Amino acid sequence: MSRRLLAFIAAVSLIAAAVGTTRLAAQAPGLRWVKAAPFPEPEEELYAVTVNGKMYVIGGFGYMPFGNPPGLVYEYDPGPDKWTKKKILPQRVHHQAQAVYNNKIYIFGGCKQGIFGTDAVTNVWEYDPATDNYRAMAPIPGPRCSAVAATVGGKMYLIGGIEPFENGQGSRISGRNQVFDPVANTWGARDLSPMPTTRNHAFVGVVNNKIYVIGGRQAAGMIPYSSNTDVVEEYDPATNQWGGVKQRMPTARSGGGYATYNGRIYIGGGEWISREVMASFRALEAYDPATDTWQLLPALPGAVHGNAMSFIGNKLHTVSGKMENGGLPDQMAPATADHSVMDIPAVAARTN
Q1: CA nearest to 48, candidates 38, 58, 40
Q2: Alpha helices, DSSP H, located in 171-301
Q3: Which of 175, 198, 286, 300: disulfide with 295, CB 3.0–4.6 Å?
Q4: Is the pLDDT of residue 9 over 60?
Q5: The dihedral of CA 45, 50, 53, 54: what is its sign?
């Protein structure tokens, strides 16, 4: 039996095992993907947010194996179905975290070259889409790369990621949880309750003022094996407490797209890198914190990791990404320009 076939069987077994142990809601019928304007500069490690009815896709890894981030910022206007390139990031990084407050985008940390704690930065930028300008904000109290960020109650929470050791050497996986006040432009004097499962390359969403960190990996940066996790953890900023165990995601993965709509967190794409399997995912799944269940949705048009996802209204957009795992050279697995959209009806989205 060929090595490729063995890898395929292993991947199918992993996914089947995950689905078999996760509470699933009924699959949503009648949903389908349609094509929109292709992304002008196909890339991986892109992240998307929506501000005033327009989507902003930010980041990019650059060439393999060590990264050469282009610092892309593209605005997508669904009216004319058009992309417009904006000013690049002042500090070109990849694997940054980002969140929105008061119609401005905040960009936290990232890596300058490789995915290592020693390449992580402390920069925080406030980007105003209305003026296409950046403002330097108070730096992170310590370098962070591949963390997640979420906004609750006017504050931003930077969680997990990769960071250097105290001596500035080497990398470790972090559960660090820090809060930033964009109005006062200050960080909390002390770290908050740390995330129980240290990880990077995770997915995140906010529902009912609680933050959900989902999946991700527990290997440090560019170590060849991603050690994906399917853990779902809930954080309540009001009490500074992490909640009980939640239903695990159906397919343990890292480094994909995520977006939140109507009380559900949508996760699409991602990657798996192990001794047996090197692959990206087509899976699209939605987590409902109210029922603690997962819903399987129509798969992405193609398998990708590092894709950007965001909602504009009730339309879910998935943009670009690399058509394989991150361990392969770009010549073997190029990024795709694909930009696909799926309508998620509000009523259907809440139907189990």
Answers
A1: 58
A2: none
A3: 286
A4: no
A5: negative
Domain ranges, ordered by start, for the chain:
3-349
Q: Please name the residue that has the structure tokens 């990769």.
A: 162
Q: Please count the other Cβ atoms lying within 10 Å of the Cβ belonging to residue 102.
A: 12
Residues 218-272 pLDDT 10s = 876 555 566 899 999 999 999 999 998 899 999 999 999 999 999 999 999 999 8
Torsion of CA 59, 108, 255, 53, to 10 degrees: -60
The label of the residue with tokens 């692959």 reads 279
**Distances in whole angstroms, Cα of residue 184 to Cα of each of 131, 180, 181, 188, 209:** 21, 9, 6, 11, 21
What does the pLDDT read at residue 349? Answer: 47
Please give the Cα distance from 20 to 298 (Å, whole number): 18
The number of helices, as runs of H, and strands, as runs of E, in the chain is 2, 27
Cα dihedral sign, 38-127-101-154: positive
The amino acid sitting at 270 is: G
Q: For residue 328, is pLDDT > 60?
A: no
What is the identity of the amino acid at 306?
Answer: G
Q: How far, CA to CA in Å, does 222 sit from each of 219, 227, 323?
A: 8, 11, 18
DSSP single-letter state for residue 222: T
β 171-181/155-164 pair status: antiparallel
pTM of the full structure = 0.91
pLDDT of residue 30: 82
Higher pLDDT, 74 or 10: 74
- The answer to whether 97 and 148 have CB atoms below 8 angstroms apart is yes
